[in-house]
Design a protein that fits this description.
The structure holds 4 protein chains of 4 kinds. Chain A is α/β, with parallel strands linked by helices. Helix content of chain A is about 35%, strand content about 15%. In chain D, strands 2-1-3-4-8 form a 5-stranded mixed sheet. Chain D folds into 2 domains: about 1-105 and about 155-175, no CATH class; about 180-320, no CATH class. In chain D, strand 3, helix 2 (about 75-85) and strand 4 (about 95-100) form a beta-alpha-beta unit. The chains are: A alpha/beta, B alpha+beta, C alpha/beta, D alpha/beta. Chains A and C meet through helix 1, strand 2, helix 2 and helix 3 of A and helix 5, helix 6, helix 18 and helix 19 of C.
Chain lengths: ~160, ~350, ~650, ~325
Amino acid sequence: MSVTEGKELRIIGFLCNWCSYAGADTAGVGRFAQPTDLRIVRLPCTGRINPLFIVRAFMNGADGVLVSGCHPRDCHYSEGNFYARRRLETLKALLPVIGVDPGRFEYTWVSASEGQRWRSVVASFTEQVHALGSMPRFMSGTSLDLCLRPAVQPRVF
Amino acid sequence: MVMPTARYIAHDKLMPWLLGLAEGRRVLAPVREGGKTLFLPLREDSRLDLRGLADDSAKAALLPRCEPLLEFHYAKTAGVPSRTTLEVREILPGQETFLFGVRPCDARGFTVFDRVYDAGTRRDIYYCSRRDKTLVAAIACADPAETCFCNRVGGDPGGSDGADLLFTPVEGGFTVEAVTERGGAFLREQALEEADGKAEEAREVREAVRRAMPEGPSLDGAPDEVLRLFDDGAFWESVAAKCLSCGVCSYLCPTCYCFNMTDESNGNDGVRVRTWDNCMSFQFTLEGSGHNPRNGKAQRMRNRIGHKFSYYPKLHDGNLACVGCGRCIANCPASMDVRAIVIQARSRVLDKEEYANE
Amino acid sequence: MNIGVFVCHCGSNIAGTVDTEAVAKAALEYREVVFATDAMYACSEPGQAGIVEAIGTYALDGVVVASCTPRMHEATFRRTLERAGLNRYMFEMANIREHVSWVGKDKAANTRKAAELVHMAVEKLRRNERLQAGEFDIAKRVMVIGGGVAGIQAALDCADGGLEVVLVEREPSIGGKMSKLDKTFPTVDCSSCILGPKMVDVAQHPNITLYALSEVDSVDGFVGNFNVTVRRKAAYVDWDACTGCGECAAKCPSKKTPDRFNEFIGLTTAINIPFPQAIPKKASINANACIKLTKGKCGACAKVCPTGAIRFDQKDELVTEKVGAIIAATGYDLFDFTKYGEYGGGRYPDVITAMQYERLLSASGPTEGHIRRPSDGAEPRDIVFIQCVGSRDKSIGRPYCTGFCCMYTAKQTILTKDHMPDSQSYVFYMDIRSPGKNYDEFTRRAMEEYGAKYIRGRVSAIQPKNGRYLVKGADTLLGRQVEIEADLVVLAVGAEAARGAGELAEKLRISYDPYGFFLEGHPKLKPVETNTAGVYLAGSCQGPKDIPSSVAQGGAAAAKALSLLSKDKLASDPQVSGVKLARCIGCGKCESVCPFGAIEMIEFRGMPKASIIETVCQGCGVCTAACPQGAAQLRHFTDNQILAEVNALCL
Amino acid sequence: MASSLDELKTAIRKALPGLDVVIAWTAGPDALSHAPLFITEEADVARIEWDPRCSQNLAGYLPGLRGKKAGIVAKGCDVRSIVELLQEKLIDREDVVIFGLDCQGAVDARSARAALGSSRGVRDVAIDGASVCFSVNGEPRFFSPGEVLQSKCFGCAGADAGLCDHFAGERGLPPQFGNPPESTLERLEAMDMEERLRFWETQMSRCIRCYACRSACPLCVCQDHCAAQSREPHWVDQTDHPREKLMFQAIHALHTAGRCTECGECERACPMGLPVMTLKRALNRRIKDVFDYQAGIDPNQTPPLFEFREVETNIKEREW
């Protein structure tokens, strides 16, 4: 089952539990309709996010990655989002060098009460990724015909 | 069977001939890419580079860096999801390959592999399948590098051990001689002109390069010396001091054949791969318990030298697991020199003996 | 592992836009899933029983429930697993309601998305570990921040329940907004008569320590073990010595000091006790008005003080209190109506706020309960009340209804008639919001028995006219313009978040809404909890409330704190970081980034290694992201677990 | 440089009795690059070499010698790696003696070999202003710095002699060679996104996963416990996919972000000639812009990803 079966693209969200995941819940409670591309991974804090998760997602073929956490100074753990901000700013320099358009990655802050804001973040980010289209996939090995094809798709539907 | 006579191919005919071969099979040849000369599948736009030793050894043709051995799939039983069966599919390599442009040392490296992977009852089906389907065409050296020392490990810059065909550079092109029956059968089918007098020129070229090799003491026959230093921690510490524990030496070595096996899976599907491994790495002997019998780089260096110059020869009729290509020396980021280590080991043993005699 | 997947319909909440049966069918194909089904309400009694039964029947050792947000029912289902004999952490939730069915319109896309979220949960679950909670000691003390009626109630209830309470109040006296009110609706009983005894109880309760004129400076620690540093601001009076006799205020020559307590419609002295019933009844000096503190001369108060309590050199003092729970009851502030040009923007002395009017009505106020115009001291006859000033107005960023203004306006018209039988009250309103016990009856009394004239419409302008004010507005029921000449205009200003609420929320690590009101744990089911364990909310800091609601919430918050601290130890969350010693190289990067000081460097077999202090670790995972070897791993959110989720979503 | 070498030898002879080991360079098997020399006896001091062929950054050996008193001979760029190790408390200042040198530039053995055709017969190398002279079998052969020197030598800020315990040669700015040859990063920037991805795909298909880039990196302190060879965590799989190899390069780059001094050891060590420093260079550039930070300058600073400011003045966050 692949998301690209529809018109969707693969967009992964890494959200902190306390603010943004709750903000996405708030958007749900408010029935704020959003595009369906995004899949959310719930983490305790944006400080838990190793930028390499995002690199991994792109290597695996994600078309977009969105990170969202508590507003600066609102971190449930006081400082997690401050570290996250530095790590993610640094990551922004890496992605375009390996061929990931900078528009495919964004990070932002959405609080638990900002359901409307979450909706607009999801809508504009999804639109932005759609404007870029699918992320080109890495070909498997080229050197000696000896590379593996990529590991397997989950089979459903 | 009688071997066909020597043939000749001119420089300008070589590439078209190789590309012609590539129609029915994979042709691997030393090709210039990214500032390196590497064995890659030959394409029309390839820049063939036959000036000297390629930067990588050609061993990947027979022992790929990464080789899928089998695929597995956890299949659900229809209607009974709690019953899962494991379906396994073996992946056997099957591509006919013409491996062109290896040097005599590289070809001789395959004989080191053969003793391990094609040893009577112990046959590695993956290796043997590739070996059976690969025709090895070696080119005799004409211009040995500073780091070349095949002559000191029982090799020959004009030799043909491990090869099926031997090319020798002569005026205007190469002579081609069959070495094995398979090579002979292949050569008979090729529309190549007779070498005639050029065969003699080729013999002279090979003779000349033998004379041109840098001289040095033989590294043969060191098994006992290395074994006697097994417990000499101080010696290995000192020779390994500058080692970075990277794997450049073993990965570029035409005789290093160690591998690791891992299962890589996602969900219900997975693949078992065999990948090059390297005894200079901490993980090579790391045990599941966390214990590591070769915890330090000195112990790992001892293993590398010991394996090449002592343990392997003891198991295989004195044949060294080193063919003197010198890639480990030329490419070591810390400028380590395997020749020097063997020589040092010898003199260390001599010193000890003298000390004991006094 | 044997995994069971339960896909909840949530009635039609999920099943309406997600094909739950197809999701369950898809789940059956996932690795190690041996059972999958859909259920009407997974969280209900039969739903949970179904899970328990399936665990037994299919020998499940892990469960995925696809339903609402884990923030709602994760704890519920973890208990279900425990009842069935499984470890509570062998559980994952896929949020297919808030994140799928409620926000996506396309059923096919929703179904695919739900199935993928289940796949992600299954792949994570396959890497879950059976975690065990530990225990830690707690401080059986509670801090209440804010001494209004909600905070007072919370403090008294906690103290009566046996907890030590630290009550922190920003102003020199507790009492809050309620202490300024003359009477309260709908009973029209005297505000200080019902609040005063409670304030005295606070002062006299052996379990309550009161810090007035104090603010929270910083908070660290965590549930059961907060360390709160309180800034006790300089009163310039030694309160241990002060007897509250008032001699100082009587002699203070600085008599034109703006009177905060009286909403600035009267004047007071630089040294004062804010009002007669103040608790603590202690004098404090307004440093901006004091002649001694501003000019260095005077000192009249020090000369007359019978106990020598005056301390011109007093400085702020920091005290740290260790408490197990915190109740925030910081109340609200009043909307600043000067933003509205049509009401004069503050230029007309006789256009006042309802709270100022309350002080005019109060017998202890600046006019001793006589209604007098601030401009000339004359008794007004025609009084216009304007409602919804700073409420229900998007254009000024106050779209919400304050909720209690309708009631207090009705009360004030009644009191006006009581004070001045010849007076006439006019009320401009948008809608009457009076949905409380005896509330609607009360507003009707104002209209029917007290003759207040209610005009449905907004006021467009107030213009001075011959010493009076021409109030121009619309009567939308009659569909015509109205003009009323008034002697006094009273604005029913709405409530807004207390100043500094955002900063306090940041210190407490709780969330707040766009208007600055603190965010409850769940709008219905956790109205007094916050997302930070051990921090509770009471009163208007969570949203505008009238007195009974504030008192009720104060009691509720106290009950939460009492139940939390009724145990001797709390269970520690095992979702904390752990260091794999064999991988750790002792580089110390984790230690340098830990926000809690929960990592110490130890020596293990002669090598430096990092070690987690589990009771201090809060589980943020900053260390895990900083550890290059992957030796430090946040349990339940390990690299491999998150990578499995990423791989499940895209590979 | 000859006089610097004498000064250096004198300083080492004097300091050696108080040290367990001194790391310097000596002639190696390749005439274009000198090899590390671990000196424990005075007799070894005579073997020290000092010329533009002393390319290897020896700082990476220091963490492995922790607990011993170690001397190290260091070029200006090497000192920056030492600073970084000191910052991260991976070595102890009181146990390390730094012998600084007046470097004129360091040869890139790979390009020098390509320029010369072979390393045979090379006897000496000298840098004189704008040209590099190799003496090959007695004949001088001249090349421009861009052809044969390491790219880091362009824009070299020289040694911070202040940190060196001894300094041989003249203090002051090293020679400036003008504009460096075009870097891979600049080439990439001229490509569109997909071309960049394809570029790495091709490059990484050559990678043999020897991890020499990591082993040679003086700041890859994990070494034996590198995430690349671990199953727990399992960041990269063992297949030959270029994606997995590029993933490792991303790991290396992000793990050294704000720490990498661009010493170039990763590229020097790579037997496949892969431009693996490119990612690190891109990160460093951003870290300089956003955090106003350069690695390896001040031993008392903290690498930028291990601290933060509440208000980050150079970060422009997107408004949604």
